Amino acid sequence: MDLPLLEKLVPPILMNCDNQSMLAQVMNIKDNFKSNKHIMRRLKIVRKMRNSGVIAVSYVKSKNNLADPFTKGLSQNAISKMSKDMGMRPI
After folding, report:
1. Distance between CA 53 and CA 56 in Å, rounded?
2. Residue 82 CB: number of other CB atoms within 10 A?
3. Cα 35 to Cα 17, 30, 42, distances in angstroms
4. DSSP letter, residue 56
5. Where do the structural domains in the chain lie, given as residue ranges?
6. CA-to-CA distance for 85 and 23, rounded, in angstroms?
């Protein structure tokens, strides 16, 4: 009783996503759609982590998503802009 209870000292990990349907599924409490079991399992884990305060999920537009150069082919201008935004040397 002498020890005070401390709040979480670690802020939640911010996860930016450009998929609005995935964000709607994470924010929705009900599972009212049919999907594969492995997708439902991952979705439940993400919901649990979000509800417990481990992660925070937010929407980012595709043109501002810094992970895009690592996941798909982009034009030279887009790659140059993204590398500058990441603090890398331009090509």
Report:
1. 7
2. 19
3. 20, 13, 11
4. E
5. 14-19+35-85
6. 24
Is 90 exceeded by the pLDDT of residue 84? Answer: no
> Residue 3: which pLDDT band, with cuts at 50, 70 and 90?
low
pLDDT digits (tens, 9 = 90+) for 55-78: 999 999 887 777 777 777 878 887
Number of helical (H) and strand (E) elements in the chain, helices listed first: 4, 2
The structure's pTM equals: 0.63
Supply 48's token pair. Answer: 């649990």
CA distances from 43 to 36, 56, 59, 67, 73 (A): 11, 14, 16, 21, 27
pLDDT top residue among 19 and 82:
19
Residue 43 dihedral angles phi and psi, to the nearest 5°? -65, -40
Are 79 and 91 in contact by the 8 Å Cβ rule? The answer is yes
The total number of residues written for the chain in this structure = 91
